[in-house]
C-alpha cells in the first residue's frame, strides 16, 4: 500500500469523524457560548494528547516547536473568524460555501509559497468543487456582510494552516504536532472568549457528555488522524478529499436531526464526489487496472 493511498484512507476517516463533530458541537452549543466551547474543546483535547507524548514534546527542537506553533496560530485565527461568521451571517449555506473556499485555495497558495505545481487533475477538479459548493448554497439569498467577510478570512487562514500543517507533519511526529496546534488554538480562542463572553460551568450532565465526545473524538482523534495523513502526501494531493466533510455532515444531519436534503444539496454533493474522483483519476485508473486486467493480458498464463 502506497503512502498516498494510506493518506486517502485516513483522510476519509478523519472527514467522517469531523462530520460527526458537527453533530456533537451543535448539541454542546445548547449550553455553551461559542468561543468558550471551542477554547475548552481544543485546549482540553490538546492536554489529553500531551499526556501521551510529553517526552516527544520535550525533545522537539526550537525550529520544530515554532513550526507547530505557527500551524496552531493559523488554525486558532481561522476558528475565531469562523465563529464570528457563524454569529453574524444571515445565510449559513452561503457561509459554508465561502468557508469551504479554503480547500480550493490550497493548491494555488502552496505553489505561490514554493510548493509543488498543481497537477492538471487538481485544476480539472476545481470547477466541480466550485459548482458543488455553489449548489449547496443556492437555497438562501446572498447578502455580503460582516459574517461573509469573516467566513472568507476563516477560509484564507484554513488554507495556510493546511499547507503549513502538511509541511510540519513531514518533519514532526503526528502526536506532538497535533498536541501543540490544539493547545495553541485553545489558548487563542480562549483569549478572545475572555474578552467578549461570560464564562459559565453550570451546564447539565447531558451537555458535558456531548462536550466530551467533541473533545475526545471530534478533536483529539480527528486531528491526530488528519495530521498523520497529511504527512504521507503533499497538500494538493490531500486537499480535495477534505471536501467530503460537508457531504458526510449533510448525511449525518439528515439522520440525526431528520433534515431533508433539497435538490440543490443533492446535486452539490454529487459534484463534490465527482471532484474527488477527478482529482484521484491516476490512482483510480491504477486501482481499476489491478482488479480488471486489460484485454492484452487477459487469458495469458
Give the topology, please:
Elements: H1 3-28, H2 34-52, H3 54-58, H4 62-88, H5 92-112, H6 120-137, H7 146-169, H8 174-196, H9 205-230, H10 235-238, H11 244-256, H12 263-279, H13 281-291
Helix pairs in contact: 1-9, 1-11, 2-8, 2-9, 4-7, 4-8, 5-6, 5-7, 6-12, 8-9
What this model shows, in words?
The chain is mostly helical and 301 residues long. It has one domain (3-282). 78% of the residues lie in helices and 0% in strands. The chain contains 13 helices and no strands. It has helices at 3-28, 34-52, 54-58, 62-88, 92-112, 120-137, 146-169, 174-196, 205-230, 235-238, 244-256, 263-279, 281-291. The protein is globular. The protein starts with a helix and ends in a 10-residue tail after the last helix. Residues 290-301 have low confidence and may be disordered.
Summarize the structure in short:
By secondary structure, this protein is mainly alpha-helical. The protein has one domain (3-282).
How much helical structure, as a percent, in the residues? over 70%
User: β content, as a range?
Assistant: under 5%
Termini Cα gap: 26 Å
The radius of gyration over CA amounts to: 20 Å
The biggest beta sheet reads:
none
